[in-house]
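User:
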Amino acid sequence: LANQLLKVKRKAKQEQDQQNELQKQAIISQQQVKSQQMAAQVQMQKIELETQSKLKYKQGEMQLEIERNKAEAALKSQLMQQEFQYNLQLRNLDANALANREQSREKAKSERISQQNTEQSKLITQRKNNLPPQNFESNEDSLDGFDLAEFEPR
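Assistant: Predicted structure:
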């Protein structure tokens, strides 16, 4: 009877040990699952933070690019305005030069006509009064702008 009691107690202890081992394994398994879940959650948070960081970086880059483009557009506009002003000044200078040239031509033409009329008048007076021929050339007249006679040896 004592043997049977020992056997029953051993069997009960063995079953209790087995049950304790199963509970221990279940607890370890639950802890591993929780640990894996926490690791996955930490990984997800890490990925989310990286994504947010990249997004903020891209937004900053885009904002910087927008500001750069605005500054470039303002500079180009300023340069175009300045180029327009320069072109306007050049056109005015060209127009003034053309007007001055035309004015000089008209003045020279007027002087030639006046000179011609004066000479014609002198010729008419010479014929009427039977005077000797007149020399209308001036010492300063020269086709090339200077008189070579002053360079001749004396």
